[in-house]
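Side project, low priority. Logging it here so it doesn't get lost.
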Amino acid sequence: MSRERLAELGLSLPLLPVTSVGSFPKPGYLKKARSEYAQRKITQEELEQEEERATRFWMEWQDEAGIDVLVDGEMYRGDMVTFFAETMRGFEIGGLVRSYGNRYYHKPIIVREVEWVQPITTEWFRFAQSLTRKPVKGMLTGPYTVMDWSFDEYYDSRREATLAIAAQIRKEVEALAEAGCRIIQIDEPAISVRPEELPLAIEAMQICTQGIEAYFITHICYGNFERIYPGLLELPVHNLDLELSNSELDMLPLLAENPPDKDISFGLVDVHSRDVEPLEVVQERIGMALEALPRERLWFDPDCGLKTRTIEEAQAKLEVIVSAVRAAREQAPG
């Protein structure tokens, strides 16, 4: 049982824990600093000071807002794949390609053997965890998504590339666990792109998680879940973090028909909408979740990262989740 796993790790969470997927909007002063750093107007040390300032802002806000499992907000990252490609050997960074909407990213190119050189996120985890007594999630991008969102000019097959990347990402997982991180999220948003490759994604995740003393979450968003469920349940993690509200909770019948043996982090608000969902709407979604799944297995969060929203919008969306969950706890104590 997943709650037993948390207890084994010395973690005690309330019923219906509230968390966030990972990214938060960057304050204006950090956007300015990142632009100035790219133009070589400020030093890396000066940029990191602003990244720490922004991380501290979001950590303090989450604590005060009543979030149960905190994230560092990814103030030191740009794109979720490019960030890791920039910090591992074997990649070159290509030109801009469109990801979704009007958002673009520099697509990595695998040009030689991929190699993890040193901890990538560990110091940021330590810094964030030092700011709160609540647990902070470590957040990584999964090997299948890194492979799928990169050009491969080195490995002979998608399988070979994915498993090579997985072996290196495992080293980052080990570094996080050694640093004291007990909840580690490995994002795989590309996992539904090719349903026939789901076994490959599962194998790669196994490499990343097997034998590590941690509670593992994988975040999957905006995919065709119907084509990969219930096979998705074979992923070797304790918690599936799913986008649900953007698709009007259309996955609930699947979950009810094939009840998961894992915890579910249930996306309650649509991060791609500027509108803040009314409290009664979020409460209704929680009610539907509780009808479909055991309350002991439910976590709640937004559909995806909040970096595309303004600071005020991101805060308002999380605040309505916290308010709705508090009401649900009062109605279903335990």
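Brief comment: The chain has one domain: 2-28+66-80+121-145+156-331.
Revisit when time allows.
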